Amino acid sequence: GWSHLERQRGGLGKTGGPGEKQIELDRRLIGSRVRLLRGKLEQLRRRRQVQRRARVRREVLSVSLVGYTNAGKTTLFNALTNARALAADRLFATLDTTTRRVWVPDAGEVVVSDTVGFIRDLPHTLVAAFRATLEETVHADVLLHVVDAASPVREAQTEQVNAVLKEIGADQVPQLLVWNKIDRTPLLPGVERDECGSIRRVRVSARTGAGLEMLRDAIAEAAKRKGATRGAAIDQAHFLQTH
Ligand SMILES: Nc1nc2c(ncn2[C@@H]2O[C@H](COP(=O)(O)OP(=O)(O)OP(=O)(O)O)[C@@H](O)[C@H]2O)c(=O)[nH]1
Ligand SMILES: [Mg+2]
């Protein structure tokens, strides 16, 4: 309340009148209140963000496009999501993460993110800025690692990207290799699986659209796997509660 106003009245001030003192005191009180509220609001905002992210992670598959710069991530992002993000034949055409929700048949809603490209020997000052934009990558359910299949150094670029992923702690996120730009190679669109039947690589052309249906199917498969894991986690929780 403002009862302190009464107590302060009576001319305690040596310089200036009592009113001036009072204004100063009020300012301090209001200042600390504002600081407290700001802190609380910030706390709430963070909590909301965390909850939203958890919700997003639980209910929809999140897919991040990663890869060497100029591999065609943004072109593929646009092709998959019907977005119109800037794709250009220059280094670092994309400087921040862009996210779109898309509906994939058999998978439901999927959140797809385009990210900045990786490059060899990135200047240290840039590394920090890039790390921040790539932070979300760590939380993705699946990484689509886009490779320029027409590049003579595609293997080295792939390794480079994997090294950066490891650096940012995203090397444990399930990865799907996407060999892009096959229109500039003799390669045909297709899906390659490992001994366990898991999809290892999809060959596509983001430009012509070749292989994109297979890529969508691959994403749907990943979504089903996530759903299965989620089901298992729920069973586990139920088991722990009732026994
Ligand atoms: N021929 C061919 N060119 C492609 C294909 N996909 C992308 N490109 C071209 O490759 C260049 C780079 O494409 P982007 O989509 O901007 O590449 P990015 O990986 O997003 O690049 P950064 O954002 O700089 O990391 C552009 O000129 C695209 O038109 C493809 O499938 N075939
Ligand atoms: Mg881009």
CATH class of the largest domain: Alpha Beta
Strand arrangement, major sheet: 2-3-1-4-5-7-6
CATH topology of the largest domain: Rossmann fold
Helix content: 40-55%
Our measurement of the CA-to-CA distance between the termini, rounded to an integer number of angstroms, reads: 53 Å
Q: Which ligands does the model contain, each kind named once?
A: guanosine-5'-triphosphate, magnesium ion
Total DSSP helices: 6
Poorly predicted runs: 233-243
> Strand-residue fraction?
15-25%
Task: Give Rg in angstroms.
Answer: 26 Å
Describe the overall structure:
This protein has about 240 residues and is α/β, with parallel strands linked by helices. It contains 6 helices and 7 strands; from the N terminus they run ααβαββαβαβββα. The chain folds into 2 domains: about 60 residues, no CATH class; about 170 residues, P-loop containing nucleotide triphosphate hydrolases (Rossmann fold, 3-Layer(aba) Sandwich), CATH 3.40.50.300. A 7-stranded mixed β-sheet has the order 2-3-1-4-5-7-6, sandwiched between helices. The longest helix is centred in the first third of the chain and has 42 residues. The C terminus is likely disordered. The protein binds guanosine-5'-triphosphate and magnesium ion (MG). The site of guanosine-5'-triphosphate has 23 residues, from helix 3.
